[in-house]
Amino acid sequence: MIGLLRRVTRAQVTVAGEPVGAIAAGLLVLVGVERGDGEAQAARLLERLLGYRVFADADGRMNRSLADTGGGLLLVPQFTLPADTQKGTRPSFTPAAAPADGERLFRHLLGLAEAAHAPVASGRFGADMQVELVNDGPVTFWLRVPPPGPAD
């Protein structure tokens, strides 16, 4: 499972002209689900998102996490994130989970997030979304919790 996190001063997701999720300062996370991902990957990704130190402390160093600051968490499903872009000029979506699996695991991640943190908002799985954000820093990180391998 992949999370592309962006530290924001605000972010909003709109579907068909209607806002479906918004936060003030916090993290906007684009979430990609890979083939083989399961609930363990979702739980570990959330743990990393809530604990990743990307917010400034009193000395201006990135030593505070979302859990420390109480900022917003906006989760947005992003089917294209796990794409294979190694060759050619067209991405392959073979690494992405099937839509039903992706939706199930995104909803699982969202449920875990809502139980562990507030405020939490989300985009809409499978929708054509417009995402607006004010990137703070800019600070952007790519986090990946790989699916279990053959020996796992």
Descriptive keywords:
single chain; 152 residues; alpha/beta; six-stranded mixed β-sheet; two-stranded antiparallel sheet; 3 helices; 8 strands; 38% strand
Offer a concise description of the structure.
The protein has 152 residues and is α/β, with parallel strands linked by helices.
Architecture overview:
It is built from 3 helices and 8 strands. Helix 1 (39-51) crosses helix 3. 23% of the residues lie in helices and 38% in strands. It has helices at 39-51, 66-69, 99-116, and strands at residues 2-15, 18-23, 26-32, 55-56, 62-64, 72-77, 120-122, 129-144. The radius of gyration is 15 Å and the shape is globular. Strands 1, 2, 3, 6, 7 and 8 form a 6-stranded mixed sheet that branches. Strands 4-5 form a two-stranded antiparallel ribbon. It is an alpha/beta fold.
Order of helices and strands: EEEHEEHEHEE
How many beta-strand runs? 8
Which residue ranges are poorly predicted, with pLDDT under 50 across at least 5 consecutive positions? none
Overall geometry? globular
Mean pLDDT: 96
Residue share in β-strands: 35-45%
* Class by alpha and beta content: alpha/beta
Total number of helices: 3
What's the arrangement of secondary structure elements?
Elements: E1 2-15, E2 18-23, E3 26-32, H1 39-51, E4 55-56, E5 62-64, H2 66-69, E6 72-77, H3 99-116, E7 120-122, E8 129-144
Parallel strand pairs: 3-6, 6-7
Antiparallel strand pairs: 1-2, 1-3, 1-8, 4-5
Helix pairs in contact: 1-3
